[in-house]
Specification:
- The protein is mostly beta strands.
- The protein has no helices and 5 strands.
- A hairpin with a 3-residue loop joins strand 1 and strand 2.
- Pfam families: DUF1668.
- InterPro entries: DUF1668_ORYSA.
Length: 67
């Protein structure tokens, strides 16, 4: 399975983040794309949903603030 990301220009990526240190979420607000998740342990992509992440750009977890 190869998500849209491989065949699209970089400007279609609106948001991205790493969750629990092993899953990378990549999102687009372009209609029909949604959000994909890449598991770095299994090297597999999955379509997370037809929604986009609720922010723009990169999001980082800040342990000191539990955010």
């Amino acid at each position: 399975f190869v998500p849209w990301l491989v065949h699209s220009p970089a400007d279609e990526v609106d948001a991205y983040t790493v969750v629990r240190g092993s899953t990378i979420y990549v999102s687009s607000t372009t209609p029909g794309i949604g959000t994909y998740a890449f598991d770095t342990e299994t090297w597999k992509w999955r379509h997370a949903g037809n929604w986009s992440l609720p922010f723009t750009g990169k999001a980082e977890y800040v342990p000191e603030f539990n955010l």
